[in-house]
């Protein structure tokens, strides 16, 4: 019986799946859009690329030299699975997922064979970086596809393509495909001194500080408990490292091992320690490392054996851009594929698919290599290739270790409520059920304050469903809590005196629960930047204020710790509130600011506010909160509340800034109350811009090289060794 024809997914013009599949021959006959993969093997030490010669019987580009391997993605299959399959089918090399670096996708369009072969093909391009060329005798060539292979320097290959040499399959090196050669050139022809200077500049944006907390009042048992909690937090670091990207742990270990081989290696390790990933948090996650900096791994059995050759040595790859789905979803999964799969599930499984505590994986990646590689329609028997995996299974060995430490810490604690919290959190690690530990966290009354688990929300930018592991270990500050209580007690008064019409005010409001702690240790999804406050766990009604972090953020002149700290409390409790006249319980007329803020803090508060604007706007308008800061700055500048001085520095005009804040608050609150989308858009279009005064001030700030953040270290005292 004749084999069934290979089916391909038909795509729309913009590359999205249509839900239609057709035989491969019909797709090329009709010119349907579809997807394929292209793979290049690059030898680092010789700067050469592996090329294959297509057999004379191929339907397209017969007898011409081409890239290492390529192939269509069969209907229902995935990009990475196809890439691995084509590599072993065509040239006999079996490599793991972390050998493949996704570079980019591009649309290739051509018509050959007298118009009979129409190619509208979206190509996913992958790069495999080996140290040395693989011996030609190690390859096993597929006779129907490949007639021979050879290595050629990437520069010569690019020149031949640019010259449109008839011996080679044509690629437009002046178009998107040419980006591949540019990336290789940048990686290996860069000056080590220039890279070192660039990393030093990035490091200079951080002020290195040592954070400690007062241990007075802690019993010996508490201190022993604290030691176990920090050990548990370090496990959160390991889990988070895996959640970022599959090769991130090996990259970390490699950088640490080689940190003192050169000045550049030391700088790479220092900056990696701050970020916890190869992407720079202060640069909108632009990479500061590449696969060329990554770990080298040896595979002795990935090809047929060759006498005297130990096997393939390759670089563990990571993408140029931080992947939107991190390592929480299959790296080649698209939103459309997820939605189709999710919609096919019963309600209970839909909740798992969109739940915060489940990864999404491919069934095909769990199959044996032989099953994946030897079948062109490996997933055809499955309606969908995706499945949900609970964190308790995905990270079961690490979470079991963490749970054991939490059980021990809970048994040591003298606080029954803390014991309940730690034990319920340990149960959550093992069962994937965290509700009980959330309640116990709210009710905990211990001097030790622990937030630990899957609460990070920054890494999943693909679908924003999945949480990442983190830990904040602190000691509560009872004295500072009294200042917080003052705001909480007057929250209803604050709301009633918003500078807006009563029509838009709420009858019932709920103040957030705010705890003030001094940070002892942090781990997991808290790298790259250090915030003064956190909304945890996954609930904006629960906020931690880190007092010693606020102290370390830096102060001078009118910008002091108390004003910065008070500003943070105001922001967390009453983000859009402005000053207004109120009537106290005794009938006396007063104002919100006079009753809640000491007079000496009013001017420093406005300076703290201006400083916060600049801190955010150094990163331009790429996020909603930076657009909001631009709106605030430009509106207050227009009203004269902020003044640009001749030396391009800014100051606050204390006689005008208050009216400016109140008028803007009134306008924003009215827009919100009316639900006036057009007015909101008009406000953003007018003020959420980098105006010339703002641009001048930002350039001045860059020239002065003022640190943008702190890089905290956590001293370990003898009791915890």
From TrEMBL:
Does the keyword section mention Hydrolase?
Answer: yes
Instruction: Provide the alphabetized UniProt keywords.
Output: Hydrolase, Metal-binding
Q: Please give the Pfam families that the UniProt record associates with this protein.
A: NUDIX
In Gene Ontology terms, what is one molecular function of this protein? dipeptidyl-peptidase activity
- UniProt-listed PROSITE patterns: NUDIX
Q: Which GO terms describe its cellular component?
A: cytoplasm
Q: Which residues lie in coiled coils?
A: none
| Domain (Nudix hydrolase) ranges | 32-174
Which CDD domains does the record match to this protein?
NUDIX_Hydrolase
Protein known as: Nudix hydrolase 3
Q: Which organism is it from?
A: Sesamum radiatum
């Amino acid at each position: 019986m004749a084999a069934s024809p290979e089916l391909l997914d038909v795509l729309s013009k913009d590359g999205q799946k249509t839900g239609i599949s057709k035989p491969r021959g019909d797709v090329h006959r009709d010119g349907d859009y579809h997807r394929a993969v292209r793979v290049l093997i690059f030898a680092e030490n010789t700067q050469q690329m592996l090329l294959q010669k297509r057999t004379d019987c191929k339907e397209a580009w017969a007898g011409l030299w081409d890239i290492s391997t390529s192939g269509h993605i069969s209907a229902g299959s995935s990009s990475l699975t196809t890439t691995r399959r084509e590599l072993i089918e065509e040239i006999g090399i079996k490599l793991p997922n972390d050998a493949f670096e996704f570079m980019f996708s591009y649309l290739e369009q051509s018509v050959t064979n007298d118009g009979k072969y129409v190619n509208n093909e979206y190509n996913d391009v992958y790069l495999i970086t080996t140290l040395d060329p693989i011996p030609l005798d190690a390859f096993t060539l597929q006779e129907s596809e490949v007639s021979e292979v050879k290595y050629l320097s990437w520069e010569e290959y690019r020149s031949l393509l640019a010259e449109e040499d008839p011996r080679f399959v044509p690629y437009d090196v002046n178009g998107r495909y040419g980006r591949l050669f540019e990336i290789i050139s940048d990686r290996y022809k860069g000056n080590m001194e220039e890279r070192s200077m660039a990393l030093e500049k990035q490091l200079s944006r951080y002020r290195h500080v040592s954070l400690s907390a007062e241990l007075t009042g802690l019993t010996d048992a508490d201190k022993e408990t604290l030691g176990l909690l920090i050990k548990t937090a370090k496990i959160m670091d390991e889990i988070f490292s895996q959640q970022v990207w599959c090769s991130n742990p090996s990259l970390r270990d490699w950088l640490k091992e080689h940190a003192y081989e050169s000045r550049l290696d030391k700088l790479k390790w220092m900056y990696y320690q701050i970020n916890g990933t190869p992407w720079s948090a202060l640069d909108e996650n632009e990479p500061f490392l590449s696969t060329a900096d990554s770990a080298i791994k040896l595979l002795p059995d990935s090809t047929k054996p060759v006498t005297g050759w130990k096997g393939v040595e390759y670089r563990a790859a990571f993408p140029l851009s931080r992947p939107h789905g991190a390592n929480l979803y299959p790296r080649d999964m698209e939103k459309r594929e997820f939605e189709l799969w999710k919609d096919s599930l019963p309600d209970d499984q839909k909740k798992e698919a969109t739940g915060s505590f489940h990864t999404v994986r491919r069934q095909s990646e769990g199959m044996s290599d032989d099953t994946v590689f030897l079948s062109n329609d490996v997933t055809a028997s499955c309606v969908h290739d995706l499945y949900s995996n609970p964190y308790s299974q995905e990270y079961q060995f690490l979470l079991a270790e963490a749970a054991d430490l939490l059980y021990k810490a809970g048994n040591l604690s003298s606080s029954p409520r803390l014991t309940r919290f730690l034990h319920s959190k340990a149960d959550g690690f093992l069962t994937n059920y965290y509700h009980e530990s959330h309640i116990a966290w709210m009710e905990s009354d211990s001097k030790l304050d622990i937030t630990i688990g899957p609460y990070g929300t920054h890494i999943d930018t693909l679908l924003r469903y999945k949480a990442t592991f983190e830990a904040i270990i602190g000691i509560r500050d009872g004295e500072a809590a009294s200042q917080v209580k003052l705001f909480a007690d007057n929250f209803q008064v604050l709301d009633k005196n918003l500078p807006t019409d009563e029509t838009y005010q709420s009858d019932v409001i709920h103040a957030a629960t705010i705890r003030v702690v001094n940070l002892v240790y942090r781990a997991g999804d808290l790298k790259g930047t250090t915030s003064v406050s956190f909304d945890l766990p996954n609930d904006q009604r629960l906020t931690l204020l880190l007092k010693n972090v606020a102290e370390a953020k830096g102060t001078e002149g009118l910008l002091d710790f108390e004003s910065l700290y008070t500003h943070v409390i105001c922001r967390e409790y009453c983000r859009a509130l402005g000053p207004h006249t109120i009537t106290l319980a005794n009938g006396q007329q007063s104002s919100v600011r006079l009753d809640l803020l000491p007079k000496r803090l009013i001017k420093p508060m406005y300076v703290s506010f201006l400083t916060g604007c600049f801190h955010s706007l150094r990163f331009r308008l790429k996020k909603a909160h930076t657009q909001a800061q631009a709106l605030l700055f430009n509106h207050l500048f227009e009203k004269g509340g902020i003044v640009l001085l001749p030396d391009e520095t800014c100051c606050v005009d204390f006689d005008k800034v208050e009216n400016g804040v109140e008028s803007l608050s009134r306008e924003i609150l009215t827009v919100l109350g009316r639900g006036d989308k057009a007015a909101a858009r008009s406000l953003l279009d007018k003020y959420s811009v980098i105006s010339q005064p703002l641009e001048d001030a930002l350039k001045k700030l860059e020239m002065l090289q003022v640190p943008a953040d702190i890089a905290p270290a956590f001293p370990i005292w003898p009791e915890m060794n």
